[in-house]
Write a structure and sequence with these properties.
By secondary structure, this protein is mainly alpha-helical. It is built from 23 helices and 5 strands.
């Protein structure tokens, strides 16, 4: 799963000076003042970022409260630095003046301005928000659902929903997946209100709007984009979901009208049910997922050995049950956390998280510290999704798993069906998250349980359980630890498709784009390093995408790739 993998990106620059900036001296007093401020800021923030990243890592791999508490204290300390009103005023004045000759300095001022903007609230409010968010995350990380007399893992819940044919057992597993909801719902609503309170003090209507602005995005642009994608995917989704529902109903011995959330193959219907006459998991059974991923990336010229050596890849008690990537220091210490099983889902996840990791790992180390991060959170999602898609690519599977031609053909015959189904399911799920979260921050006192199922029925066409009035929405960890973030996953899918089009058309120059596996394609690795990874955040995300692909971000390649007439 994506960068729940989210966000502990931190770093270490040359020696906290401006040797990375253009070498000509500045004779502009304003520029000299800003450079001195930024140098001082980096010296202050850099070691704290690294400490916080390490504390978060230890919390995730152990589940121990002391590490969560340390991370919370460090995050609060960092956010207090960004809450300084005098420093914010300096940045705002420089940004409003808009007359800096140094482009790198201008960009750093812009990045810092947005970081300070979201933290211009009282120290007490910051403290409450950070501590409550950390407490909720701790609950998620250490919670284990109870199924009958035993505690089970998230992997076990998903395994039951994938393989069990007894509808009652499926229902009980699905209900178990929601047990965390009532434990955190009250705190989540309190957290939403605290975040809104902070946004109101800064003149925003709510935290959702503020989050988009500080991420260099606009609400109206996203509403328009999601509206267009809704129009483009509604009918195709209804068609393929109708086919899916017929297959599920027949397999589970129920009518289509009786299908409920537990009849799908994951707790939120965000993943693709394996319903056709092919189980991709059998091809990964007994395979070393870690080694496969390492070999593939090495073939692109992207060595991930050091990343994997420092990572934590296998399941155990107390450990965070999900997956994420973290850049500890922006100087090469990049790690991923996974809970690998030998199945297709974890092959996809491993490729995905390493996609984040190579983005971080192969940035130009001469880039200024403040800009040594992805151009945007969704551009790193796009790279991760670009690679994650390969776990179901028949040509990739043939080459990496040493499959026969007959096996490849058998996979390929239905791979297109799976690819379309997967992307349509995810697009509709992302719409649920975007629209629900937007409404959540607009009015956290409304009937959120009903709103959740209204939104699910509208975009996913999944019938709510009759009479159920529980905070099932609160069981989604992203509302707590990656707020107002989920739309970036869908933007990442658009970027991944746009990159794919560019690579198969202009880099590989493939005769048949549908047969591209990327295995052993070092020129693909070089293109990504030069056009996406090394530029880091020197350019705003829209400029980086246009420079890399020749076009602004567009949905047309996603639609062309996955939405069939």
């Amino acid at each position: 799963m994506a960068r729940q993998c989210m966000i502990v990106c931190v770093s270490f620059l040359c020696l906290l000076n401006f040797s990375c900036l253009p070498s000509h001296p500045s004779h502009n007093p304003k520029e000299s003042q800003l450079k001195a401020f930024i140098s001082k800021h980096i010296a202050q923030i850099q070691p704290l970022h690294r400490e916080a990243a390490l504390a978060y890592w230890q919390a995730a791999v152990t589940g121990e409260s002391e590490h969560y508490d340390r991370f919370s204290a460090l995050e609060l300390k960092i956010r207090r630095i960004y809450s300084d009103p005098d420093e914010f005023a300096l940045l705002k004045a420089a940004r409003d003046a808009g007359s800096l000759a140094d482009d790198l300095l201008t960009r750093q001022v812009d990045v810092l301005y947005h970081q300070y903007l979201g933290n211009q609230v009282s120290p007490e409010l910051l403290k409450q928000t950070v501590e409550l968010s950390t407490e909720i995350e701790k609950t998620f990380s250490t919670h284990r659902p109870t199924l009958g007399p035993e505690k089970v893992t998230d992997n076990r819940i998903k395994e039951i929903l994938k393989t069990e044919t007894d509808p009652e057992k499926r229902k009980q597993a699905w209900l178990a997946s929601k047990q965390v909801g009532p434990q955190v719902a009250g705190d989540l609503i309190r957290l939403v209100k605290l975040r809104n309170q902070a946004a109101h003090t800064l003149g925003f209507e709510n935290y959702h709007t503020m989050s988009l602005v500080t991420a260099e995005q606009r609400v109206e642009d996203l509403v328009q984009l999601f509206g267009e994608l809704d129009d483009l995917t509604r009918e195709p989704f209804q068609r393929v979901k109708g086919q899916l529902d017929a297959l599920l109903a027949a397999r589970l011995g129920v009518t289509v009208e009786d299908l409920r959330p537990w009849h799908y193959h994951d707790p939120f219907f965000q993943e693709t049910p394996m319903v056709y006459d092919l189980d991709l998991d059998v091809y990964y059974k007994g395979k070393d997922i870690k080694t496969l991923s390492s070999q593939f990336y090495a073939g692109l010229g992207l060595d991930v050995a050091s990343i994997l050596d420092d990572s934590d890849l296998y399941e155990r008690g107390g450990k965070n049950p999900h997956a994420f990537c973290t850049d500890i220091d922006r100087a090469g210490d990049v790690r991923i956390l996974c809970n690998i099983k030998d199945n297709e889902t974890w092959m996809e996840t491993q490729l995905h998280e390493l996609g984040h990791a190579v983005y971080d790992k192969f940035m130009d180390q001469e880039t200024p510290y403040l800009l040594r991060e992805p151009a945007h959170i969704f551009t790193t999602e796009g790279i991760a999704m670009f690679f994650g898609r390969l776990s179901r690519n028949a040509h990739w599977m043939q080459q990496m798993l040493d499959l026969s031609e007959e096996q490849r053909v058998a996979i390929e015959e239905i791979a297109g069906n799976y690819a379309q189904l997967k992307q349509l399911i995810f697009a509709r799920w992302a719409m649920v998250m975007f629209h629900f979260e937007r409404a959540l921050y607009a009015d956290p006192d409304q009937d959120l349980n009903a709103l959740w199922w209204d939104t699910v029925e509208t975009y996913q066409r999944v019938t709510r359980p009759q009479g159920r009035d529980e905070p099932d929405w609160a069981a989604k960890i992203h509302f707590a630890i990656a707020p107002c973030y989920y739309h970036n996953y869908l933007l990442g899918e658009l970027f991944a498709s746009q990159l794919h089009h560019k690579l198969v058309t202009d880099v590989i120059e493939a005769d048949d784009p549908t047969q591209v596996s990327y295995v052993g394609q070092e020129r693909v690795g070089r293109f990504l390093v030069e056009r996406v990874f090394e530029p880091a955040a020197i350019y705003p995300w829209n400029q980086m995408i246009e420079r890399a692909t020749g076009e602004s971000l567009t949905a047309k390649y996603f639609v062309a790739q996955f939405v069939r007439k």
